[in-house]
Amino acid sequence: MPSAPTIKLSNGKEMPLVGFGLWKVDNATCAETVYNAIKTGYRLFDGACDYGNEKEVGQGIKKAMDDGLVKREELFIVSKLWNTFHDKERVKPICKKQLEDYGIDYFDLYVIHFPIALKYVDPSVRYPPSWQNEKGDAIEISKTPLSVTYAAMEELYEEGLIKAIGISNYNTALLLDLQRYAKTMPQCLQIEHHPYLVQQDLLNLCKELKLTITAYSSFGPASFLELEMEKAKNVPLLFDQQDIQAIAKKHNKSAGQVLLRWATQRNIAVIPKSNNPDRLAQNLDVCSFDLEQSEIEKISSLDKGLRFNNPLNYGLPPSVGIFG
Ligand SMILES: NC(=O)c1ccc[n+]([C@@H]2O[C@H](COP(=O)([O-])OP(=O)(O)OC[C@H]3O[C@@H](n4cnc5c(N)ncnc54)[C@H](OP(=O)(O)O)[C@@H]3O)[C@@H](O)[C@H]2O)c1
Predict the structure, then answer these.
(1) How crowded is residue 75: how many other Cβ atoms within 10 Å of its Cβ?
(2) 193: which of 85, 215, 283, 291 fits an S-S bond (Cβ 3.0–4.6 Å)?
(3) Ligand 1 atom 36: the closest Cα is on which residue?
C-alpha cells in the first residue's frame, strides 16, 4: 500500500506530505470516499466548515477506525475556521462544534481559512454560512482584526483542542504583520500553488519563517472548470501542457503525478481531491520518483501569476480584495 512521507512542522509534529482534499466531495458519497481513501493509504484529510461535509467525513473516519484500518493517532485531520467566525467569542464554540461533527476531540491542524472577517451567522440560521450575512442578501464585513482572531486560535492551541495552527490565503505583507503579534508562530500556510501561480517571494519568506507550505489546487484550472469559471476556460489545462506531458512520458507517470511531484520534491505538501478511485490512488504515489532540477525549473517557468481562488469571485467588493 503506498503511503506518503511526512514533513516535520516547526513544533515537531509530523505532517503527511500528501493528503486528501475534501472540497467538492459530494455529501452522498463522502463517507465512502474517505473510508476508501484511508484504505488506499491516505492519512491526512483537509476539511473545512465551508465544504459542508464534515459530518460525513467523520462517518468515514469512524468506520475506518471501527474496522481497525487505522487509529486516531495515525491520522492527521485538518479543518478550517470560516470567515463568519472570526470574532473572538465565536472561535472556540465553532471549533468545538466542528470537532463534534467529526466525532473527534482534537484537530491536528486548524487553519484560518481566509484573512477576511465577516459578520457572524448563527449556525442555526445557516450552516455552513458561506459568504452572505444572516439574511442572505449581502456580504458584510466584521470589524475584528486578524490579530484578535489569531489570539483566539492560540488559545485553542494552548488548550490542546488543536495540535498546530494554520493560516491560509495570506500574502507576504499579512505574514510580516502576523510576525508582530503572534506569541506562537503558525506552523503551516495553505496557499493556491501550481505552475500558473508560483508565488516565489511568498515561498522564500515562508522558508525564512519556518512555515511549512501546503499547496491547494495543485492542478490549477481543473478545479475551477468544475465551477464553470471563465478564467479557467481561457488557459490550457496543465495536464495538456506539452512540457508537462513530455516530462510525464519520460518518467512513465501521469501529468497529474508530475504536477504533484513538482511540489512535494520542494517539500511543499499537497492535498489533491479526486472523486475517482484510480486517480485517488495515483495521487498518493507522488514521492516515489524524482524530477531533474531542470524539469522543476521548466515547470516553474510556466508561471503566469494566475490566481483562480480570488475572494473577489465570491462577491466581495474590490475594496476588500486582499491580493493587491
Ligand atoms: N484554503 C483554501 O482556500 C482552499 C481553496 C481550495 C482548495 N483547498 C483544498 O485543496 C484541495 C485541493 O484543491 P482543489 O479541490 O481545488 O483541486 P485539485 O485537487 O487541484 O483538482 C481537483 C480536480 O482535478 C481532478 N483530478 C484529480 N486528480 C487528478 C489526476 N491525477 N489527473 C487528472 N485529473 C485529476 C479532479 O477530478 P476528479 O474528482 O474527477 O478526479 C478535479 O476536477 C481541496 O479539496 C481543499 O481541501 C483549500
Answers:
(1) 18
(2) 215
(3) 274
